[in-house]
Design goal:
single chain; mainly beta; Immunoglobulin-like; 6 strands; elongated
Length: 150
């Protein structure tokens, strides 16, 4: 299954106009791998969000796809959350918005976030966002898997 998903992602990278950004992040040679179920609906017809532990930091991977080019597309309000029991979650900080303009998709790959705490769980929440026009937008909330940071 991972090989099929990897092949799908590679084909999309080659055939699609994927925009990737790493503001205040460290690109890693070895990808952070954590597969989470993808979602499909509306203007945002495909989206996925996952996190993994990368040497005590949080590695975020997120993708947002539209069926055609949008005025804006991407991830809004990427919020890092922590928990000591994996049930009660607290916002640590808002990493902001990551958007592409006049594009059909957007990918945030291997975005490394240095963490303030250890000995707890981390996850991220975001909104997968697409804006076709002033009158037509869609924002799908999503929560990643959680990961233990020792």
């Amino acid at each position: 299954m991972k090989k099929i998903l990897s092949l799908f992602c590679m084909v999309n990278l080659l055939l699609c106009n994927i925009h990737s950004i790493s503001v205040n992040a460290t690109e890693v040679e070895e990808p952070c791998t954590e597969i989470v179920e993808a979602h499909y609906e509306g203007l945002v017809n495909y989206y996925v969000l996952s996190v993994s532990n990368y040497n005590g930091s949080l590695c975020v991977n997120a993708e947002t796809f539209a069926p055609y080019y949008m005025e804006e597309i991407g991830i809004k309000d990427l919020i890092v959350q922590y928990s000591y029991d994996n049930e009660h979650w607290y916002d640590e900080w808002n990493a902001g918005n990551f958007l592409a303009y006049n594009a059909g998709n957007y990918g945030l790959f291997n975005y490394i976030i240095a963490l303030e705490r250890s000995g707890c769980y981390y996850r991220v929440t975001c909104k997968h966002y697409a804006k076709e026009s002033f009158w037509k937008t869609q924002s799908n909330p999503n929560t990643s898997n959680s990961v233990w940071i020792p």
